[in-house]
Amino acid sequence: MSTIDLGMPLEGPIADAITSSVASQGEKQTALKAKDFKTDQEVRWCPGCGDYVILNAVQSFLPSLGIAREDMVIVSGIGCSSRFPYYMNTYGMHSIHGRAPAIATGLAASRPDLSVWVVTGDGDSLSIGGNHLIHALRRNVNITILLFNNRIYGLTKGQYSPTSEVGKVTKSTPMGSLDHPFNPVSLALGAEATFVGRAMDSDRKGLTDVLRQAAEHQGTALVEIYQNCNIFNDGAFDLLKDPTTGVQWSIPLVHGEPLVFGPEGAACVVRDDVGGLRIAETNQVRPEEIVVHDAHRADPAYAFALSRLSSQDLRYTPMGVFRSVQKPTYDAMMAEQLDVAAAEGSADLDALLAGNDTWTISA
Amino acid sequence: MTATDPAVTAGSSAPGGLVKSVVELDRVVIRLAGDSGDGMQLTGNRFTSETASFGNDLSTLPNFPAEIRAPTGTLPGVSSFQLHFADHDIMTPGDAPDVLVAMNPAALKANLADLPGGGLLIVDSDEFTSRNLAKVGYAANPLEDGSLEGWQTVAVPLTSMTLEALAHSGLGKKEAERSKNMFTLGLLSWMYHRPTEGTVRFLERQFRRKPDIAAANIAAFRAGYNYGETTEAFAVSYEIKPAPMAPGKYRNISGNQALSLGLVAAGQRSGLPIFLGAYPITPASDILHELSKHKAFGIRTFQAEDEIAGVASAIGASFGGALGITTTSGPGVSLKSEAIALAVMIELPLIVVDVQRGGPSTGLPTKTEQSDLLQSMFGRNGEAPLPVIAPRSPGDCFDAAIEAARIALTYRTPVILLSDGYLANGSEPWAVPAGADLPDLTGAVGFATEPNGADGEFLPYLRNPETLARPWAIPGTAGMQHRVGGLEKADGTGNISYDPENHDFMVRTRQAKIDGIAASIPATEVDDPDGDARVAVIGWGSTYGPIGAGCRRVRRSGRKVAQIHLRHLNPFPADLGEVLRRYDRVVCPEMNLGQLALLLRAKYLVDVQSHTQVRGLPFRAAELAAVLQDVIDSTSGAELAADPTGGAE
User: Fold this and answer.
1) N or C, fewer C-beta in 10 Å, chain B?
2) Given this model, what pLDDT does residue B20 score?
3) What keywords appear on the UniProt entry (chain A) (predicted)?
């Protein structure tokens, strides 16, 4: 069953190539299993890396989306997470550092019939590729971005990243990092991203749920996935993973549900005096004061306020879908402009070459 | 006033009984110079259009500052437009103007040195106020102190006559004054017998939403024309007969226009959708503007957030089966280098258009140079060969764009197309081709739809044995899923490989693929009328015109020179080394410090003599003729007189 509405194939040689392969192989295969998305390539992440868990989660839930493997393209940049495409039996491009959103934009804009994904890390998308990320988000190109955030540079062996906490001691910051970190969710919401979610690598159910909503979203979807680097930043998310502290410091986001969390729902989210949000003790406020999560608000300010509840040390971290709103996608609008132009004017090459001002020399 | 000049061929009577004579000329070079705000480029373009539709051969050289509006009346704000037109075929915008129109003291000061003695100088006398003179450091008014005696100076109150003509137009003084360029155009149109209907139509079209402005401009234009006809200041008008051209339909075209149309045609002739990812940059932005108008042809244009995203988006589009293109200038190529190398590695079609400008760094944004050749050849990490081609004239940008597409598609490779600022903004008459006669590129596309491996698998790096191109299988095609990337590929499978032998093999194979393109390009074309020249001159890109004009002069003096002009800079035509070795001496003029010369010397061990200039302007034909003459004379030992015609083309 297809839950993702991919566009119609285009006309011309591209449509011909697709039709030709379908003709030789029968109808598009969408009844797939997790193993159908695996490749013959040996997965080469460090043993115990959070990336394995994410790969498995993605391969397991993809069949339920009903997308044929050939209609999926995964574009990545550089970094540990960016090896992801090699392990997925779809089309893929392991590109250059930071540029995956730009490559995916060109692909998605010219091929609205594809499901285009970007896999990136915190260094790739927020440092060297920060510009491309924010512009993809503001344009609302139809791509799904999985941002693996391990808060460290792993592939270059352990320097601080743009999400590392202030004071982080690494090989390049022996006296502690001076940089204030990005909160990727806040950044994305600042760019008015239409879909922003956050999930934990080890939380298969929560991760799958956010990924599914991201995949079904029309427009740019950003999912920040907290991912443990057991070599260079082990335990970075233990506060949220530990069964006891996790309940205490995570705020589960469920659309339409009050924002109540903590052991026995002892804490909640209420509005503060200056238009933002704050944490309160549930028994100290009236039930109607507790904010009911609404991911569909047009104004990103509410989702942004949610994202600001958490601190660098991960206390009060909302998990789930912050924002999911509908806006026209870039690729659809671009296709529409082409349709309008084709309807209004003719594609007559000879007329174009001649232009408005010609003269003729007779023989 | 009665003319006694023997060249006078006809007389005509203007209203008021004034007898005007008509002198026939074979060619003329006019330079219009004024403030950036005076509309000199527009005036020049209109005069060019009139001249083109009249049937003269022509060549133009716009020259303007990078600042949009430098302070009024200052030297940095001077903008000029030079037009050379003739009754025969010409190759350059002319070394020096015969006529200089200076709209203010700054324009006079900046351009007078280029006007040969005796040349016609027309100035707007209204602008020669003490304030304007002081701005550019004139202690005395040159119109009054006798310093212009060496030229035929005609001081015309262009501004006040324009105001007078528009006294009843209802426009304010400031607005009416802006039409003085059209008054000037009218005067020149009379002087050179240009057709005027095109300009009237143009003004009506341009200002269709502001009919009063259109009317004012047309009135000023006509007033200028009528002034020419009635004034005693100009006793002579000039006739330059149409140039004989091959039968056919012609238009005037600039390099950026021709390049854009070539890209549209490449899309149409390959059947592929075109995707242009670009970031605005001088002097390439006009290609982005032009292509964004042609969405009806299925062309997608994407103004990216930066140069890198421009090329990256084009690579993404190519992966999806489009013809990906990015357009830029030198600084943009620097930023795109890593992504271009990715395209080298993943072997996808990509066209990178570099409209070169003066460098390094920001350099001279609006001036021409051809100093990105070595950057194009080598400006990437690792062994990252790619084809490089260059157009030779504005109209040739069209053919070069189609050739770039042919190579990119056939060989699945990024191609760098090196235009430059002179080609981009200069224009010439162009024989409009029929779309159906253009190269058919559909054969170069051929998406892979069937597995090619022995076990029914798809091997994305199993190459075409002839072209060494890899298969292009696009997303959406079932059973052909594959991964590409910047890491080294295993031969055949394209899987990641760190194997030493494989890397050595793949590096050599990528080089061999590019080298092999030489098999698909024509042999070196040598222009040597007698076939026994001992000196050859070799060039590339926009120097074709000046070198060609220089060769004509040299040949008219009885000397012999062979001209070779390269379209393909990587790979070179297969026979190039052998051809160069036939000559005693080889001269290579370039608007850089000898980049092609370096390549030729390295590759063929031929003692190429480099002649260079980097003034941000094209070579002067006379300069090149003198260089060639010296080389020829020192080779033959004989001394001949210089060109007896004194520099006609």
Assistant:
1) N
2) 78
3) Oxidoreductase
